[in-house]
Each structure stands twice: as structure tokens, then as C-alpha cells.
Amino acid sequence: MIGRIAGVVIYKGDDHVLIDVRGVGYSVYCSDRVLAQVPGPGEAVALFTDLLVREDLLQLFGFPTLIEKEWHRLLMSVQGVGAKASLAILGALGPDGVGRAIALGDWNSVKAAKGIGPKTAQRVVNELKDKAPAVMAMGGTAPVAPPPDTDDDAVIEPVRAAPAAPAPVPSASAQAEALSALGNLGYAPGEAASAVAQASGENPTATTPDLILAALKLLAPKG
């Protein structure tokens, strides 16, 4: 599996970028928003990648951050959402916007993405509302993958096995991370802190994703 590519841009198309890695060109498909961030031909670039494998197709998709890659993988787990639809949603909303829309049940924002109908948008929100906090707990938008040193040979890095799920973190750390995630979603510090404190009191050993999910339920409109 190919988890990250670092090399030199050869060409930028409408939906992909061609990256030279030690003399081999890799076509990496990206959203419009990501393509706008990719430098021009001759410049160094590094992207986290997800490899789609089918009987008649091998296709790479590129993302500037790990959290955006995880959102892509999560979106593709929804029935009716393929790679093209996932990129359309991420391109329209960005990773933070996707998390905000799912957390708030705002399927209209998801529907605004090109080619996404109302039924698909509702499925995205309904199927991912319990899974989204785990991605949100990664800490917001991670730093963009650093470009390779142009003095060294560009390298292609294989995906490494995901680390084992961590044990429950201390409550104070989980609360801080949950507050940060809720702040990224637009909640006021006071209401976020109140919800996190209540959720933490009900489950003192809760992990960050558990706290985020519990706080979102407390903050959801009643009625």
C-alpha cells in the first residue's frame, strides 16, 4: 500500500497531479481545493495518499493532511459514496466543514457538494454521526505534509500498520481535546465547557471521542 508520496510536480490536470518519484510518474487524484494548494511544475510536493484497488483499476487519491485522508476513508464507508463523491464533499467543505456538518446534522451543507443528492447527504450525516468524533479527536487540521528536501532523492513511503487503540486517557487531557474539537465546530467556550464537564462527570474515564460524542448530544437542540 502507498500511504504517502513525496516528489516533484510534473503536471497539474483538472482532477489530478502527476508527481515524479525517482523517475516514475504517479497520477494522484485530488479535490479542487487540494489541487489549488499544490505547487506548480518543477516544485516539490508531499501528499498523504489512499490507494483504491479494483479488478480493473488502481487509483491514488491525495490529501495534504492525515485528518483529511481519514475523512475520505470514513466518507467512502457510506453506501452510495465513492471516491469521486468523497472528494466533492471534501472539496466543498474541507475537513473541518465536514466534521461540523455531521456533528450538527446539517445535511444541506453536504448536499451543496457537486453531485451529492439529498438522500446521499442525509445518509452521510446519519451513518457517520457516531463515527465522526474519533476523527475530530485527531486534533483539528494537522500540519500540511512537509515537501521533500529537493537535494535528496524523492521517496515513496509505504503505509504502516495503524497503532493499537490507545487506552483511556486522563480526564483532563480528554476534556482539553474535546473542548478544542467543539471550538473548531463553532460552539462558544462557555457552552462547550459546560457540556464537556457534564459528560466527563458522567464518565470520568471517557476517551476524547467519547467525550465529544456525549457533549454533542448534550448540545443538540431539544425538541
Notable characteristics:
Helicase, Ruva Protein, domain 3; cytoplasm; helicase; 223 residues; 5-stranded mixed beta barrel; OB fold (Dihydrolipoamide Acetyltransferase, E2P); four-way junction helicase activity; Holliday junction branch migration complex subunit RuvA; alpha+beta; DNA polymerase, domain 1
How would you describe the overall organization of this protein?
It comes from Marivita hallyeonensis. Residues 172-223 are annotated as: Domain III. Belongs to the RuvA family. One of its GO terms (cellular component) is Holliday junction resolvase complex. Helices cover 44% and strands 20% of the residues. The protein is of the alpha+beta class. The chain has three domains: 2-64, Nucleic acid-binding proteins (OB fold (Dihydrolipoamide Acetyltransferase, E2P)); 66-136, DNA polymerase, domain 1; 171-218, Orthogonal Bundle (Helicase, Ruva Protein, domain 3). It has a five-stranded mixed β-barrel with strand order 1-2-3-5-4. The chain is elongated and about 55 Å long.
Summarize the SSE layout with pairings.
Elements: E1 2-12, E2 16-21, E3 24-29, H1 32-37, E4 44-54, E5 57-63, H2 66-75, H3 83-104, H4 107-111, H5 118-128, H6 132-136, E6 156-158, H7 171-184, H8 189-202, H9 208-219
Parallel strand pairs: 3-5
Antiparallel strand pairs: 1-2, 1-4, 1-6, 2-3, 4-5
Keywords: ATP-binding, Cytoplasm, DNA damage, DNA recombination, DNA repair, DNA-binding, Helicase, Hydrolase, Nucleotide-binding
InterPro entries: DNA_helicase_Holl-junc_RuvA_I, Hlx-hairpin-Hlx_DNA-bd_motif, NA-bd_OB-fold, RuvA, RuvA_2-like, RuvA_C, RuvA_C_sf
GO cellular component, one term: Holliday junction resolvase complex
